[in-house]
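Sat 14:20. Reprocessing the chain from the morning session after the first attempt stalled halfway. Input below, unchanged.
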Amino acid sequence: MKRSAFFITIVLSSLLGGFFAILLYVRVAPQPAPVYQPVVQPVNQVPMSNWLKDSNFVVPEGLNFMLAADISTPAVVHIQSTYAGVNSDGRPTYDLFRDFFDGESDRYRPSPNQSTGSGVIISPDGYVITNHHVVEEAREIEVTLSNDQRFQAELIGLDPTTDLALIKLEGEGFPYLPFGNSDNVRIGEWVLAVGNPFDLNSTVTAGIVSAKGRNINILGGGATIESFIQTDAAVNPGNSGGALVNLKGELVGVNTAIASRTGSYVGYSFAVPANLARKVAEDLKNYGEVQRALLGINILNVSDMENLNITVNNGVYVSAVRLGSSAEDAGLEQGDVIVQIDGKIVRNVAELQELVGRNRPGDEVEVTYLRNGEEFSTQAVLKNSMGTTAVLRTDPELYLGGASFEKVSETEAEELEIKGGVKITAIEEGPWQEAGIEEGFIITSIDKNTVADLEGLSRLLRGSQGERIIVLGYQPDGDKAYYMMDF
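Finished this time. Tokens:
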């Protein structure tokens, strides 16, 4: 009996041990990995990002840039500008008054004669937007399309404050780029730069939007507007005036500048936003000059202010309000911090200048600002540089700074052996009178920039407001003279 009991005990112990071993294995042994079935979306149905869902636009397979390139390339043109330093047959001409104007004795040295750049056709009837510095002072403007068709372009207008210009091709049915909404451009978004770097026609490069609202101080300050879109798409000399497009083939910017220590691309390129470029182009087409709207305030970045009890990190500090300005009429005061224009956030001076600059005199904008820590809103009716809401046009007769002007007659031009010029017909109280200039003085140059007609004079003077300028020309008796004046 004792041996049977011992055997039974051994068997029961073995069974219990096996049971607990199996239980322990089940609890701690690694489980096989689950098998996942991939969810396959059809090609061309991958959404680009949540913010583009409302447009139903999708990225082609492999993030393909071909669609945008196909749309934009035919509308981007090569521009060659010929200056007064060469005749139409290519032979150099000479500046007979160079020694008088800048003190050089080698008056017969040929002037630089040509430059090249890019432009974007923005309408089927041949309007082309480009940079001011591409066609400034050009005597002839030759435009070559991507299919090698060549046209002589007419200069419609220039705006040095945004470095933009508008020219016109004769004809109809041109390929053109539609404007996109540059407000919707997002940092990190893919864009293409299309242009003619180093005269390599129809070149396309890709990159992303690196930043917005960049001010790089290349236009000289004052009344200029610099609120560039920064990208890392490769842009080089010759790309100026070309297109920055999104993946839908919409024009979201006009390529204008690069930041470089070598003169060639090193990773930073800048474009004028399309919303501002469209407004400038429309003004130049309809009025001959840009209708610049102003709040009439002096401003500084909040981030640059010290020792002030400002509770926000972004915005624009109002350091002064001009008498009779739209800002004064709207109730803005020194010390206010502007944080929005028409509901759009204002982070810095560049963004405020762009948002206001899209408007024309007489337009009303909503200004949101902080005062003593409280937020307020007011409506401001914008005014022009003359303090009115009138539209300014390039007229046969011009009145600026207390003086009236007219284009010099052909007889006077022949007698003085000059090509073009502007004659002062009347002078009242103002900077011209203060400089000692008399009626009948013929202006041929301002700050070494040739003045050929009223449009050129108006452009130069409006870009020189608040600055000291040198006015060169001829007295009524035919003697050459120059004047320094604060305009």
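Residues 23-56, 86-111 have pLDDT under 50 and may be disordered.
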